[in-house]
Amino acid sequence: MSLNNEQKLLQLLKTGDALALKGLYSLYAEKVYYFSFRYLRNSADSEEIVQEAFLKIWVHRNEIDESQSFNNYLFTITRNIIFNQYRKKINELAYVEYLKPLINDLDSSTEENIISNDLNDFLSRQIDKLPPQRKLIFKKSRVEGLTYPQIATELNISEKTVECQIRLALKTLRKEIQ
Question: Which SS3 state, helix, strand or coil, does residue 130 take?
């Protein structure tokens, strides 16, 4: 294609003629693709660069200087898109590496919290099913942290009764857990 035809396409492009863009695309798309592929070594990414470059040409069509080389203008845009993509990928990789330990901690702590909450809910329901006296003794021992002699004194029962009730409560809970 002659330089005059390219300049005519650029003039038409500046007026918003989509066919002019199509003409420029057919002239340069393959060159832009191979230029991109040399840097990216990825066909899909290179095709995306071609699309993005011509989209920028369309969006900024009024800024094109017809007296300057369109080829240079297009490849400058393409090179900048590629460099920006590299920068974006580097920043994304750095950010992912930064987040990995945080995500792993969050995942494991969230999972542990869910399991712990579920287990606590299950145990609370099972403790509530115990006979009233056994439940009271068990809660005083395990929740309030009282010793067997303290519980015996407070409830006016023998230490052996406290010990027996705790043993039976634990036996029941173990059975329910299994």
Answer: coil
Name the one residue in this structure whose structure tokens are 């470059």.
Answer: 53
Is 48:40 a contact under the CB 8 Å cutoff?
A: no
Which residue is listed with tokens 């002239």?
A: 27
pLDDT digits (tens, 9 = 90+) for 20-59: 999 999 999 999 999 999 988 889 999 999 999 999 999 9
What element of type H or E holds 64? Answer: none
Letter string b/e over residues 76-112, b meaning 16 or more CB atoms within 10 A of that residue's CB: ebbeebbeebeeeeeeeeeeeeeeeeeeeeeeeeeee
What CATH number was assigned to the domain covering residues 3-83?
Answer: 1.10.1740.10
* CA count, 13 A, side-chain hemisphere, 133: 10
The CATH class that applies to domain 129-178 reads: mainly alpha
Distance between CA 160 and CA 158 in Å, rounded?
A: 5
pLDDT in tens, 75-98: 999 999 999 888 888 887 887 787
Please report, for the chain, the start and end positions of each structural domain, with discontinuous segments joined by +.
3-83, 129-178
With a threshold of 0.70, does the pTM exceed it? no
